[in-house]
Design brief:
With 267 residues, the chain is an alpha+beta fold. The chain has nine helices and nine strands.
């Protein structure tokens, strides 16, 4: 059994229910709540603070979790045919909103995302009933979200702001110069990446969050292998599970040690 989140057409009513995987996939505007929402790591007390490297790893894991939760929400809140570019834009808006649904996006952010000047993306999200489109030439861009589900988020704005920066360069699968479809696929994989050497997720989940059908998602995964962003991936059709491997980091060759001018005498 899975825990599924379903919304009505207006987006004002949400329902949590236990259901099977087949029923969740067949029900519209439904997303499966990942297990990490329940089993997420809790911060340690200040008296037993972990070493700095572990703090960095946990911070990145927390940012990955927030982005994963928001991608899951957008998979249910937006229509299936919403474009990858609009989903990337919606993710930034959802994480940056305040308690009143107001969002301000700097012009440099949209330029860095290669989405500046694409007013059709705002219209796409507006036609889905998710936000009010901005004015013709606002600086910075200001919009208002219409879905009440994103107005009462648990994490504070500072924590969500850190997640927005991670979503722009989701280590270890950052592709800032790639097309939106490839960037969104890499982001979804990065949000589902674990500490293990082998990473996995259901194909239906990946396809829904990427805004594509399974065949298109497979083609995008092939492109990630071609660009050496992934080492390999495999689709287990019996379990509908996708497994992928990240490239192994190349170690730097150690320079040869040359003898100095003052050498110790040989014994």
């Amino acid at each position: 059994m899975l825990l599924a989140l379903t919304r009505d057409r207006s987006g004002r009513t949400w329902r949590l229910a236990d259901t099977c995987a087949a029923c969740a996939a067949a029900t519209s505007h439904t997303a499966v709540v990942p297990d990490t929402l329940v089993n997420s790591p809790r911060p340690l007390p200040s008296a037993c603070a972990p070493p700095q490297p572990l703090v960095g790893l946990w911070a990145e894991s927390d940012q990955r979790l927030r982005v994963r939760e928001m991608l899951t929400y957008l998979g249910a809140a937006l229509p299936r045919f919403t474009s990858p570019a609009a989903r990337l834009l919606g993710l930034q808006c959802a994480l940056r909103t305040n308690s009143h649904g107001h969002v301000r996006l700097p012009t440099g952010l949209l330029r860095g995302m290669r989405l500046g000047g694409h007013r059709e993306l705002w219209q796409e999200l507006a036609h889905a009933g998710w936000l009010e489109p901005p004015a013709v030439r606002p600086v910075p861009v200001q919009v208002r979200l219409l879905d009440a589900a994103v107005l009462d988020q648990g994490p504070g704005r500072r924590a969500r702001c850190r997640a927005t920066h991670w979503a722009l360069r989701p280590a270890p699968l950052a592709l800032p110069a790639a097309p939106p479809a490839l960037r969104l696929t890499a982001l979804v994989l990065a949000a589902h990446t674990s500490v293990d050497a082998e990473h996995s997720a259901d194909m239906d989940v990946l396809a829904r969050l990427c805004g594509h059908n399974p065949q298109q998602t497979g083609e995008l995964l092939d492109r990630l292998v071609t660009t050496r962003t992934l080492e390999a991936w495999h689709h287990n059709r019996e379990t509908d599970e996708v497994l992928w491997h990240l490239p192994q980091p190349r170690g730097r060759a150690r320079p040869a040690v040359r003898p100095g001018r003052h050498q110790a005498p040989r014994c």
